Amino acid sequence: MLIALKNTGIMIVATILGEVGIALILSLLVSNIRKGSGFFRVVYFFPIVVSATALGLLFNLIFLYDKGMINQVLQFVGYLDASTNELIDWKADHAIFTMLVPVIWQYVGFYFIILLTGLSGIPEELYEAASIDGATKFQRARYITLPLLRNSICTCVVLAVTGALKVFDLPWTMFPNGMSDTWLTGTYMYDNVFSDVDFAAAIGVIIVIIGVVLSVVVNKIFKTKSDYEV
Which of 5, 92, 176, 220 is most buried, by CB atoms within 10 Å? Predict the structure, then answer.
């Protein structure tokens, strides 16, 4: 259980920094594109519509020890010695990293759409006025975009925290039965539900309590405001 809580904590931090952070950067970049922005919206959102089980199987092949795509690429560029067939056992030696990459990749598009919707609600007149006053693009993002995206960012962080607590299907597909000590609260609860339903139910209660507490903390930090109360 301690391992599951520790890994879930890592997952929460990774989802906030990885999913929400990358989504914020991508949304800021795409919002400044005048032509072809629709293409990027589709491409970034696409992973969320793919089955998590299918993604788990896909990344199992990518990180495969022998003949996996990553090891083949590293041998091709010379990082690994191809003559001795040097390989990296990603799932054994870098289990948490191997699990986090597909989870982050899958959900970036979800938060990207939320943040992009928030950006579309910011009046263009504010940017025009700032430009006239000599503000750079960075200053406009720092003093106009980010403050007015506060509520959207808060929503994304709350969803990321609660989602990390209950993520199950993709990690279970890649690491069944907690392979390499990759237990999460969701996968550990499922593994115990058939042998000790009382213990599994207790884990479920802990997940709910942690989710509620963290959601309250996030809302306290961001202190949801009206759109122009910055």
Answer: 5
DSSP state of 65: T
Domain extents for the chain? 2-120+147-222
pLDDT digits (tens, 9 = 90+) for 166-218: 888 888 888 888 777 889 998 999 989 988 999 999 999 999 999 899 888 88
Residues sharing a CB contact under 8 Å with residue 98, sequence separation 6 or more, in sequence order: 59, 63, 90, 91, 174
Task: Count CB neighbours of 95 within 10 A.
Answer: 20
Nearest to 17 by CA among 140, 111, 152: 111
- CATH classification number, 2-120+147-222, choose in 1.10.3720.10, 2.120.10.30, 3.40.50.2300, 3.30.9.10: 1.10.3720.10
Q: Do the beta carbons of residue 99 and residue 106 sit within 8 Å?
A: no
pTM for this predicted structure = 0.84
Q: What span, in angstroms and rounded, lies between the C-alpha atoms of 38 and 168?
A: 31
DSSP state for residue 34 in the 8-state scheme? S
Q: How far apart are CA 70 and CA 64, in angstroms?
A: 8
In whole angstroms, what is the distance from residue 111 CA to residue 31 CA? 14
Query: Alpha-carbon distance 144 to 122, whole Å?
Result: 9
Considering only CA atoms, give the Rg of the chain.
21
